Amino acid sequence: MAKPGKRYKQALEKVNGDEPRALADAVVLLAAQPKAKFRESVDLSFCLGVDPRHSDQMVRGTVDLPHGSGKTQKIVVFCQDGPAADAAREAGADEVGLDDLIKRVSGGWTDFDVAIATPEAMAEVRKLGRILGPRNLMPTPKNGRVTDDVAAAVGAAQGGRVEFKVDKTSNLHVLVGKADFPAEHLEGNAKAAIDAVQKARPSSVKGAYIKSCTISTTMGPGVRVNVKEI
Q1: 151: which residues sit within 8 A by CB, 6+ positions away?
Q2: By three-state DSSP, how is residue 127 classified?
Q3: The pTM is what?
C-alpha cells in the first residue's frame, strides 16, 4: 500500500481526529485543507442501513444541486428528427439522433456523461441495456431522462442534476461540487443531497437508515458529519 503524501498528512492534521461535526463546520474544515494541483471534486459518502441484495431496499435517485455540480456534462439525446431533436440541440445537447446514435453505442462508443431519450425512442434504446446499464447511463423515467420535454432534461443535466445509487456494500456516494466552491455553496448542495437520500429511504428499512456520513475531496481525508444533526 502506498504511503500517504505530505499534502494528505497536512490535511489529516487539520481534520484532527474522527469526531463527527456539524455540516457547516465540516465544510469549513474541508475548505481549509491543502489543495491539490487539479480541481478536486467534493463527495458525500453514506453508509446506509439497507441490504441492497433485496430489491425493496435498493436506494437510488437524483438530486438537483442548487449551486451546480461544477462538472461539464457531455449529453446525448435519443430521439427522431423533428421538434424534439431541434429543441435538444437548442438546449445544448452534444449529440442528437436515434438510429445513428444507437449504431455508435452498439459499436462501443460511450463517450458521454448523460443519456436522455423520448418515450418513443426507448423501444430502440432499451436494446442498449447491456452497454448503458453497467455504466449507469441508461435513461429511465425515475431519473427524469425519459421524457418528451428533452430541452428541460438537458437543462437539468447541465444545471447540476446528479444521480446516486447504493452499491452492493450498502455505501452510497453523491457528488456535491468542487473544492473551489464557496463554503456556503458546498453546504447548500450537501443539504440538498442529504435531503434527497433521506427521501429515498425504502419503506421496508427498519432501524437506523443513515449510519454514517462523510464529506471529502478527491485527494483529501474525509470529515465525518454528525448523523444526529441530519
Answers
A1: 87, 88, 90, 91
A2: helix
A3: 0.78
Nearest one of 75, 62, 86, 61 to 154, comparing CA atoms: 75
CA 144, CA 81: separation in Å to the nearest integer?
A: 21
Tell me: the pLDDT tens digits for 146-158?
999 999 999 988 8
Report how far residue 171's alpha carbon sits from residue 153's, in angstroms, rounded to the nearest whole number.
27
The torsion angles phi and psi of 194, rounded to 5 degrees, stand at -60, -45
Provide the residue type at 211 as one letter.
K
For residue 226, CA distances in Å to 21, 26, 34, 47, 200 come to 5, 9, 23, 13, 20
Cβ of 162: how many Cβ atoms within 10 Å?
A: 23
